[in-house]
Amino acid sequence: MRRRSCWTESPPLVDKNLVRMDAHVAGEVRFGMLETIREYAVDRLVAAGERPRLERRRALFLVELSEHAEAQILGPEQQQWLDRLEREMDNIRAALAWTLSEPNGAELGLRLAGSLWAFWFFRGHQTEGRDWLRPLLDAAELSGIAFPVRAKALFAAGFLASLQAEYGDAIRLLNESLALNQVLGSNAGSALCLMGLARVRRELGEARTARSAAEQGLELARAGGDRAMGGLLTNTLADMCLELGDVTDAAERYEEALALWRDLGGQQSVAYALGGLGDVQRAQGRSAAARALYEESLALRRELADRPNIAIGLRQLGLIALDLSDLVDARVRFIESLFAVPRPCQPAGRCLRSGRTGSCGYRRGAGRTGGASRGCCARPADTHRHAFAARLASRADASARSGASHTRARPLDVVMARRTSADTRTSDHAGSRRGRAAAGACGPGDRQPPVRK
């Protein structure tokens, strides 16, 4: 149902208490109805043979909305668009469930789920995004899907896989998308894929290959005149410079990205560049300057409700507190970072899924992706990297008890901290809500657990 910004009189169905008109939100009037009335209305639609037509209309409306949002979500109205999409999540889930059940619905579903890639990331819905994209891409194998639609969906699936440390899948999907974008001659699509591949190669320890991919992507973005894409890749390239120990070049790149994103108004990317500059300051031993940059970055992330990156900011501040021997603050920051994003498991204390206590399968020396107890942690990197924060919290505890002072971390620790903090993107609280979505009855999402103190 399309909405109008104002009403001169109550709609008849509202007057008869068949439809509820909710409070105005951001200039919108939203409608709802009691579950029993909704079920009766669905039955009448089915009996009249009208449900498929209306389901398609809803899906088309949401595709149009999500594609428009994708074009705006990196700009000055970022928060408004993220909030708007969050309000539409129940409708989005129902529409995606319908596209999976409809014989010819895969293309609409891929357009919808693919164009939401940034939303899935910024709002911590990575798992849910992948859960929709995976069956839609499987269904697309059996039917002819337009190359641009398939390329965007493959990128979205690969990008989300990379955030969850499933690097083999990420490389395969991103390379498939890159090949399609090259056939299409899409500089923007190719640059996006190269950004994703650069992130993966960095996580695999292939920093020079990662830097090369980021440089290629940045060249394509600039050739196409895409400033937002250029800003994303400038931040990515700065990460690679820092990874290689080129602190001066990293600082220049972050400064360049910061100026660009302040001009474009993309607050999430402003926060990212500020955090990067904080890493540079910390690597150079300027803890006070680093803390100020981290705090400015975290404030922006809180305003945006950017849950994955809130955890990164908290962990950055925890590392600074360790540098300054403020062990109490360090412990508080690290523990708060563990609960900044709702998770299926926590590496220290009680596992929220299995109910077991202990490290939930974390093994020392298990490699960067760690090891997880079978049937408990769905993402191995989840456990390994969360264990890093938990160990830092324990280290702060032990130091406080012993009265020991903390020695400043070497510059390499900055890189390690940045890598390990990225795990906040490895899972989200949403899970798959397909059952409710298929029935058209999607309630509020799971609530975030309170910060434990």
What is the beta-strand fraction?
Answer: under 5%
Helix content: 55-70%
Contiguous runs where pLDDT drops below 50 for at least 5 residues: 1-8, 344-385, 405-453
Give the H and E element order. HEEHHHHHHHHHHHHHHHHHHHH
Give the number of helices: 21
Number of strands: 2
Radius of gyration: 23 Å
Strand order of the biggest β-sheet: 1-2
Query: In angstroms, what separates the terminal alpha carbons?
Result: 44 Å
Structural class: mainly alpha
How is the main sheet built?
Answer: 2 strands, antiparallel
Q: Name the overall outline.
A: globular
Oligomer: single chain
Mean pLDDT: 76
Observed structural traits:
453 residues; mainly alpha; 21 helices; 1% strand; globular; disordered N terminus; disordered C terminus
How would you summarize the topology of this molecule?
Layout lengths: L11 H4 L4 E2 L9 E2 L2 H14 L2 H22 L5 H10 L1 H13 L4 H10 L1 H6 L3 H15 L6 H17 L3 H18 L2 H17 L3 H17 L3 H17 L3 H18 L2 H17 L3 H17 L3 H17 L3 H12 L41 H23 L8 H11 L12 H6 L14
Antiparallel strand pairs: 1-2
